[in-house]
């Protein structure tokens, strides 16, 4: 997937963000998006191929892998990054709507009248609410995905050995996960950066409310 499209779109919201918002964007780009593209995808590329079970029973390995990995980490992170960046695009669209409205008034020959939006990017009125709701939504998405990861993978860690006794496995089968230590390090790193992004979003929301 071409993540540079999201980087190009989100970079436009920098000029409408507060200092906390710019820090949040930097964290998303450097510590989440870049780490995902450069390293995390490769770490999980062999998760199914190198998931070994001590049996040759047809279908047993696939059933056990599906049980212990109902959704891939990498796909959950991709969905999380998409959802958490969408609210920033709404802010850009709202500013673009204001600028287009001002442009229509100028083209209608009403330059002498007072401008509706002297500064379309200033967080006043509806744009203030759009920006505030985007912060709440971003924090909410990250919290929901932290809960999903916790439900699927207890304590956000992967064991080296899992025991599976699902049909069609003939008995209790030992299965071994590929590179569990490396995957645990990346998982905890992504969880930590997600928590920092949640705190930044809440701080920025409190700053906006206090400033108003």
Automatic annotation (TrEMBL):
It is found in: Cell junction, Gap junction; Cell membrane. One of its GO terms (cellular component) is connexin complex. SMART domains: CNX, Connexin_CCC. One of its GO terms (molecular function) is gap junction channel activity. Residues 42-75 form the Connexin N-terminal domain. Its main location: other. Pfam families: Connexin (PF00029). One of its GO terms (biological process) is cell-cell signaling. It is a multi-pass membrane protein. Belongs to the connexin family. One gap junction consists of a cluster of closely packed pairs of transmembrane channels, the connexons, through which materials of low MW diffuse from one cell to a neighboring cell. A connexon is composed of a hexamer of connexins. This is Gap junction protein.
